[in-house]
Design brief:
This protein is an all-alpha fold and 400 residues long. The chain is 53% helix and 2% strand.
Length: 400
């Protein structure tokens, strides 16, 4: 069963109790349309083709808060809106005229646009409005900042943490599992002496998978033994908010909380959370998997573009060599040729050693003859043998 780490279900039920009957700051007819829309999304009614099914509590919370913002800032009723009204509102957001409740500018307003499009298209499907005023507006957002640590920094950081957090961090770095997946895992999901973890379908955001653990197995054994955890116990024993606060403090203290971790990642060291571990894990495993298929399975990705999104290819180098440019058929020819050359070099080495010995022996006989010494029958016989061996080996040069 998937744990509700961020208490979405509880928060959604509270929101319904407080806002379904009435709501301050918006027109009555707009409130009625918004509530009908949210009820349909909760039940899975009047959904887009291909996107059937009930919406989760987390999604419903976003749909409610984001669309409330629009309803409170439009100057006319929802069903009377035009393209110009929507684009003028976005222009005020972009120019900082309208800000968030904390008086900070919007950084990812595309998320609001996306949820308003969902609302407006529901209005079209249910015949409340006719024209699509969202067709020309973009819901594009910039990639959120994240904190990058290279492998040495990861070791330095994790090994400074208390034992429980060290185990959690090394597990997430090793497995590449999502925060929500990791938070929902139980001891019974581990097998083979904690060298494998099974992420069930009902826990995963995309698909279930079995992951081989290569770094954290011993840590996990000690962790489970120390806390006397049973198979039905969850691996995470603390809340996510508390763990994130702890990680932000220590990462900032070690590397400088206001320093930018990487020009590509852009995140400040003092903002490190559990979510950043998955980013850094993707960088680690990208350098070790021979194919994209393997890393996509490990991380639960259905699309290859997630590789760039999560890793930004940080820590990756161009390792292409001249040998990589040779096609398979040519490689086989080269390997055979290299093997033949090695064998020939070995024969030549043996040939050279034999040549040196025979040449020395024959030179001795010639030297004795040149000095006018008497060549005995034994030495003549030796000379014949040497000449025979030279001819056998083909050492014509030595006979000159």
């Amino acid at each position: 069963m998937k744990r509700d780490a961020y208490k979405f279900v509880e928060r959604w039920e509270t929101w319904k109790q407080n806002n379904f009957k009435s709501m301050k700051g918006i027109r009555r007819q707009d409130h009625a349309l918004l509530i009908k829309f949210l009820k349909d999304m909760e039940l899975g009614l009047n959904t887009p083709v291909g996107l059937n099914g009930k919406r989760s509590s987390g999604t419903l919370l976003n749909l409610s808060s984001h669309n409330l913002f629009f309803l409170r800032n439009f100057k006319k009723p929802l069903i009377n809106l035009t393209k110009k009204d929507l684009h003028e509102l976005q222009d005020k957001i972009d120019n900082g005229i309208i800000k968030k409740r904390n008086n900070q500018p919007f950084k990812q307003f595309g998320n609001y646009i996306k949820d308003f499009k969902v609302f407006w298209h529901w209005l079209q499907r249910t015949k409340k409005v006719k024209n699509d005023i969202t067709i020309d507006i973009s819901a594009k957002t910039s990639k959120p900042d994240w904190v990058y640590l290279d492998e040495e920094q990861i070791k330095k950081f994790f090994n400074k943490l208390n034992f429980d957090m060290r185990v959690i961090c090394w597990f997430m770095y090793d497995s590449g599992a999502r925060v929500t997946e990791s938070n929902s895992l139980k001891v019974e999901n581990f097998s083979n002496e904690f060298t494998q973890v099974d992420i069930p379908d009902e826990v995963s955001k995309t698909f279930g998978r079995t992951i081989n653990l290569k770094i954290c197995s011993q840590y996990l054994k000690e962790y489970v033994a120390e806390h006397k955890l049973q198979p039905s116990d969850y691996l995470f024993r603390k809340g996510l908010f508390g763990m994130n606060k702890y990680l932000k403090y220590w990462c900032g203290k070690i590397f400088g909380k206001d320093k930018v971790s990487s020009p590509k990642a852009k995140g400040l060291y003092g903002h490190f959370t559990l979510y950043d571990i998955r980013h850094n894990s993707s960088c680690y495993w990208l350098n070790r998997y021979p194919t994209h298929k393997g890393i996509m399975y490990r991380f639960g990705w259905k699309n290859a573009d997630k590789i760039e999104y999560y890793s930004a290819f940080l820590g990756v180098q161009d390792e292409l060599t001249d040998n990589d440019m040779v096609i398979g058929e040519d490689k086989n020819k080269i390997y055979k040729l290299e093997d033949s050359i090695k064998k020939l070099e070995k024969k030549n080495e043996e040939f050279g050693q034999t040549q040196d010995v025979l040449h020395n022996e024959f030179s001795l006989v010639l030297e004795m003859m040149a000095k006018g010494r008497k060549v005995t029958g034994i030495m003549k016989e030796q000379e014949k043998k040497i000449r025979a061996r030279i001819r056998e080996k083909g050492l014509a040069v030595a006979l000159k």
